[in-house]
Automatic annotation (TrEMBL):
PROSITE patterns named among the record's database cross-references: ADH_SHORT
Pfam families listed in its UniProt record: adh_short_C2 (PF13561)
Coiled-coil portions: none
Enzyme class: oxidoreductase
SUPFAM superfamilies named in the record: NAD(P)-binding Rossmann-fold domains
Keyword Oxidoreductase: yes
Keyword Nucleotidyltransferase part of the UniProt annotation: no
Protein's recorded name: SDR family oxidoreductase
A single GO molecular function term of this UniProt record: oxidoreductase activity
UniProt-listed PANTHER family: 3-OXOACYL-[ACYL-CARRIER-PROTEIN] REDUCTASE, CHLOROPLASTIC, SHORT-CHAIN DEHYDROGENASES/REDUCTASES FAMILY MEMBER
UniProt similarity note: Belongs to the short-chain dehydrogenases/reductases (SDR) family.
Source organism, top-level taxon: Bacteria
Biological source species: Streptomyces justiciae
Length: 246
């Protein structure tokens, strides 16, 4: 039976890979993201799309209304929207403290607030029993992210997921987190990653390779399956062992 799957950040990278996996399994997919043109270019057979800024409550309400009209219930909710703010305007002025405040605020909004708002807006529509809520975190939540802002924002997903799992568990809904490491073929690093940094990230893994969006997508697909029905409130590492360090 086809399920209704909502994927934030579904136009590129991990979100797009997940959308293709779910669609290939016969599920109905809704792609949500800020850039309408990116969503329209996404090659996902039969997928619907809804352009929205998920940090804006009015836009989130509009997505919820769209879901209500097109889907009714939501079987799987995947949060893959996020990033370090490369598409955001820079901080105004040259004050370094203002730059810190801007960077932390942007990362909180992109990686944590978007997920919380969309979840809360759709919580009552989650299929009961059998619903799935899935968050895409990051290895940075464990090992840092340079500035700290991105890793801290992703880490904030973890207690939220645990609280949701307890809240939604009586309805037969599971809530889990996937924490990828270095994933190639995404927009995360903007242009091409520095070769020395790429080598260092790969050397951190136990299996000696970079991850790809499909690695994460297949994990999300499994966590949404009936076979993972007793798996909840977990953080699944998909980073080739890099979270353990070298």
């Amino acid at each position: 039976m086809a399920r209704n799957v909502v994927i934030s950040g579904g136009g590129t990278g991990i979100g797009l890979a997940a959308a293709r996996v779910f669609a290939a399994g016969g599920d109905r997919v809704l792609l949500v993201g800020r850039r309408k043109e990116v969503l329209e270019r996404a090659a996902v057979p039969g997928a619907l799309s809804c352009a929205a800024d998920l940090s804006d409550t009015a836009d989130v309400r509009r997505v919820a209304e769209f879901v209500g009209r097109e889907f009714g219930a939501v079987d799987v909710l995947v949060h893959s929207a996020g990033g370090t703010g490369q598409l955001e305007p820079s901080a105004a002025g040259d004050d370094p403290l203002d730059a810190v405040a801007h960077n932390w605020t942007v990362n909180f909004r992109l990686n944590l607030l978007t997920a919380a708002l969309l979840t809360e807006a759709l919580k009552d529509r989650l299929a009961s029993p059998g619903g799935r809520v899935l968050f895409v975190s990051s290895i940075a939540a464990y090992r840092g992210s340079g500035s700290g802002a991105y890793g801290a924002a992703k880490a904030g997903l973890h207690p939220y997921a645990h609280d949701l799992a307890r809240d939604l568990g009586p309805r037969g809904i599971t809530v889990n987190v996937v924490a990828p490491g270095y994933i190639e073929d995404t927009e995360f690093f903007g242009g091409a990653i520095d070769p020395a940094r790429r080598e260092r990230l790969i050397n951190d893994t136990a299996n000696g390779r970079a991850g790809n969006p499909g690695d994460v997508a297949e994990t999300l697909h499994w966590l949404a399956s009936p076979g993972a029905g007793h798996v909840t409130s977990q953080i699944v590492q998909v980073n080739g062992g890099a979270e353990r360090g070298r």
